């Protein structure tokens, strides 16, 4: 007898619901792709920020300088010469490189070694060299390796060493760069004489003029005088100018430097390999630097060099600064990552829960006919894994292709977590709902459901965690890098608020259902009854509300973060310029310039002022910065820029003898100046007059000056010092405007610079603001944060659509039956909209309120300075989170509109279709 054929479970289920399988695959692929992209995107912008910072830093800060003063001083002359030979120094160089610990790597193309003078050698006998103030030019001599590799011969040839050079050599060959040759009038064949150690001179014959292949590379930039000469000044009064240049010798001629009076030293100049730098290896790199600078590596270096070698570098300080900036940015980005990740997990759980609810009857029948819980869970796991695993692999592959930089391990783990959660959501939900065999269930309406003890314990645990995270964030902040609990604070606030709202949700439904039942219309009562009968056990009420509140809280929090960053950058730019544009000169500006600027397109107002730094109090200990302003325009400027707004009448006076003891001039002062001079009258010596002032207003900021300042009215001060009198005509120019503070909407920078002239400084607020976002670390973090907020909002919308789609068949069947009883299309549309509104309105109001509460609770501990300002330091002002009304209200409004639109669309679509299928007797709806 042939056994009956049994259809495979997985194949049967996939064929029965291909649409659901494809939707699940798409959801898993998208989520796993985003989860895998995130760690790689973070690593990409962190590494890009590190490389940008290292490349922008001066090579003197990043190069490892190993020097040995008076090398081989204890040895005989012949042995000392051998130490300076190219082969000997190359061997030492290789030993030093081998002694370095990973991940510290050396760029050998930009590294060099050799012998150089540390004391400038004066060419006193070479009268043909330029002497600006009758002072002889001075030179640094360097026998440095890699000269041919890093330079191009412009004229002549590279220097060579004839024979075996010793310390007694009196003639050597050298080369100079084109910049040195032009400034000092050196050409091939010139001979420069520098003092010898014992007596006489050492002659350096210039054989070639060179051009640096990359002047900014470490080879040249580590000792800039070799690439270009500098005009320096003596410390005498008045100072005198003299030239300092560099001469490059052949590496084989290094022993000749031992015979000069330049106190030569051996050096090994190690340039770090920028291509091997990685943000996550910074702690190990810092440890490797400490190993070489002050640890066992220094002993290995000294054994290789045979002397008391010193190691110096600013790379470790640079790493510390970068790590500080990264530690301030990381926790802020983590807030968005945790929020979006939580919403994505809720969507996956909700998809599994809704699938379990949709197939509740099927699972009940299986259990009643002898199906085991283990067998049911195994079959559901296999059914889900067949769809989720390939989809997760496809999402991971797409992520690896989309973002090629970064480690692959975190991406694989993130995608695997998404697949695992998806595979377990449906089986666990089914097992939890069908542990016991039952044919029919009791009423499970949301309005009559009672939370279990386990749920109460879980909610209390989350409440404790939320309180702990808020307290930790407010006390510690994010300056030390924070931790996961601190970054989860906004998410936990949203989750706790969701649980509270779910518990409170049934109360208004019960209150409204009774009066609605007494109304003549049926739509209001039916909508409330339908909303209250949403199945609580399926998660159709809890999970969507949880996702919506978490997403709305994260969106509001994230929008406020971005708004706070923009506000802080705008504020910093305004503080730097004092207006939308600042025209400034060290002397008086042309009299007609203010009128010309005022007539330019986009200019709203111009405030002329003069900055004085020569006002002295009686004690003469310090000079006071003083802004002499046109009070009316300056008051308007202060109000428009929100920099120390004050009434114009506070600085004006009608007294005939203003500025005397009887009638002091009113001034605007900073708090520091108020602390110095107090509230009473004080005097400043200006232009031969003792001017008496009195502080009338105190402001922390003002457009004209930063930190310490006094602001006085121009007319009153000029009248006090006697401007207009013949005896004081020679000081009138001091009261002409030297600066113009310009406000307006789209100021034409090139036109403003053209009108001001080449000798006048013009700074635009927009240009200053752009300086604060020049780091890829900040721009990348801001992009990732914005993307996380948008993705979280998208997942929240998806939860709302899933919740509404779950009840769509039931709603359609209800409408079909009600239409047969006389319900109009308009009433059907109102019914569906009113049924969807309570949950959407509750989520919108709760999300806005929770977002506002989260911002108020967490703003004291969140530092946005690292994200806002590229030049931020530890001692500067802290940029804090600010409430942004648009970020609070816009996502909430979108939730309500989306729920209304979906409900209205379903009513419209249902009205276009027939109701034959829904009205068939004996068929499930």
């Amino acid at each position: 007898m042939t056994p009956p054929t049994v259809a495979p479970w997985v194949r049967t289920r996939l064929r029965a619901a291909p649409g659901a399988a494809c939707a699940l695959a798409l959801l898993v692929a998208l989520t796993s792709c985003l989860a895998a992209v995130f760690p790689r995107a973070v690593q990409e912008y962190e590494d890009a920020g590190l490389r940008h910072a290292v490349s922008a830093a001066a090579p003197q800060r990043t190069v490892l300088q190993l020097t040995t003063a008076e090398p081989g001083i204890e040895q005989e002359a012949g042995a000392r010469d051998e130490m300076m030979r190219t082969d000997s120094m190359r061997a030492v160089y290789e030993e030093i490189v081998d002694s370095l610990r990973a991940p510290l790597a050396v760029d050998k193309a930009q590294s060099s070694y050799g012998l150089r003078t540390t004391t400038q050698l004066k060419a006193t006998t070479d009268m043909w060299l330029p002497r600006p103030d009758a002072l002889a030019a001075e030179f640094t001599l360097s026998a440095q390796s890699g000269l041919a590799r890093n330079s191009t011969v412009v004229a002549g040839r590279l220097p060579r060493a004839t024979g075996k050079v010793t310390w007694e050599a009196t003639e050597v060959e050298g080369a100079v760069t084109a910049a040195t040759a032009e400034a000092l009038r050196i050409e091939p064949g010139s001979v420069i004489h520098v003092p010898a150690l014992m007596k006489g001179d050492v002659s350096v014959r210039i054989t070639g003029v060179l051009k640096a292949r990359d002047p900014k590379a470490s080879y040249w930039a580590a000792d800039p005088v070799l690439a270009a000469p500098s005009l320096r000044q003596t410390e005498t009064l008045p100072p005198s100018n003299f030239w300092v240049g560099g001469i490059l010798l052949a590496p084989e001629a290094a022993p000749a430097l031992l015979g000069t009076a330049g106190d030569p030293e051996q050096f090994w100049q190690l340039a770090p390999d920028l291509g091997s730098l990685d943000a996550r290896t910074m702690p190990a790199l810092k440890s490797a630097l400490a190993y070489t600078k002050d640890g066992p590596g220094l002993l290995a270096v000294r054994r290789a060099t045979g002397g008391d070698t010193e190691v110096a570098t600013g790379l470790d300080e640079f790493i510390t600064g970068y790590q500080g900036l990264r530690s301030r940015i990381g926790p802020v980005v983590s807030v968005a990552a945790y929020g979006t990740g939580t919403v994505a997990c809720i969507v996956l759980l909700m998809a599994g829960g809704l699938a379990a609810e949709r197939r509740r009857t099927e699972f009940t029948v299986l259990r009643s006919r002898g199906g085991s819980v283990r067998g049911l869970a195994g079959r559901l796991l296999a059914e889900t894994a067949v769809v989720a695993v390939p989809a997760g692999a496809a999402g991971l592959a797409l992520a690896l292709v989309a973002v090629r930089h970064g480690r692959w391990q975190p991406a694989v783990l993130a995608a695997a977590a998404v697949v695992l959660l998806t595979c377990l959501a449906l089986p666990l939900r089914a097992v939890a709902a069908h542990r016991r065999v039952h044919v029919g269930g009791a009423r499970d309406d949301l309005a009559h459901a009672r939370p279990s003890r386990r749920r109460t314990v879980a909610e209390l645990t989350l409440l404790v965690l939320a309180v702990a995270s808020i307290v930790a964030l407010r006390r510690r902040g994010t300056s030390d890098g924070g931790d996961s609990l601190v970054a989860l604070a906004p998410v936990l606030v949203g989750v706790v608020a969701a649980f509270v709202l779910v518990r409170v949700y049934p109360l208004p439904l019960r209150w409204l259902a009774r009066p609605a039942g007494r109304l003549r219309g049926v739509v209001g009562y039916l909508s409330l009854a339908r909303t209250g009968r949403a199945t609580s056990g399926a998660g159709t009420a809890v999970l969507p509300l949880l996702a919506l509140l978490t997403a709305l809280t994260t969106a509001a929090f994230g929008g406020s973060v971005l708004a706070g960053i923009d506000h802080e950058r705008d504020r910093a730019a305004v503080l730097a310029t004092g207006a939308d544009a600042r025209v400034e000169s060290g002397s008086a500006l042309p009299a007609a310039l203010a009128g010309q600027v005022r007539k330019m397109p986009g200019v709203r107002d111009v405030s002329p002022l003069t900055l004085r730094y020569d006002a002295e109090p009686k004690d003469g200990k310090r000079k006071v910065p003083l802004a002499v302003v046109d009070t009316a325009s300056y008051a308007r400027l202060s109000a428009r820029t929100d920099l120390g707004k004050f009434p114009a009448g506070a600085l004006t006076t009608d007294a005939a003898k203003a500025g005397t003891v009887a009638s002091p001039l009113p001034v605007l002062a900073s708090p520091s100046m108020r602390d110095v001079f107090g509230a009473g009258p004080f005097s400043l010596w200006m232009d031969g007059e003792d001017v008496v002032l009195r502080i009338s207003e105190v402001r922390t900021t003002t457009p004209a000056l930063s930190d310490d300042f006094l602001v006085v009215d121009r007319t009153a001060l000029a009248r006090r010092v006697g401007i207009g009198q013949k005896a004081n005509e020679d000081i009138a120019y001091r009261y002409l405007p030297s600066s113009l503070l310009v406000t307006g909407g789209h100021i034409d920078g090139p036109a403003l610079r053209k009108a001001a002239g080449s000798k006048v400084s013009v700074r635009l607020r927009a240009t200053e603001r752009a300086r604060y976002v020049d780091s890829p670390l900040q721009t990348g973090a801001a992009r990732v944060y914005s993307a996380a907020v948008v993705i979280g909002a998208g997942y929240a919308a998806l939860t709302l659509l899933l919740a509404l789609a779950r009840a769509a068949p039931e709603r359609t069947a209800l409408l079909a039956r009600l239409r047969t009883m006389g319900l109009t299309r308009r009433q059907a549309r109102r019914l569906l909209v009113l049924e969807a509104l309570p949950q959407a309105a509750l989520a919108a109001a709760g999300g806005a309120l929770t977002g506002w509460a989260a911002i108020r609770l967490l703003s004291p501990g969140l530092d946005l300075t690292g994200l806002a300002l590229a030049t931020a330091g530890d001692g500067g002002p802290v940029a804090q989170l600010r409430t942004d009304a648009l970020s609070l209200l816009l996502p909430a409004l979108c939730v309500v509109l989306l729920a209304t639109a979906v409900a209205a669309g379903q009513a419209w679509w249902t009205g276009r279709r027939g109701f034959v299928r829904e009205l068939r007797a004996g068929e499930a709806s």
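Residues 315-358 form the longest helix (44 residues). The mean pLDDT is 80.
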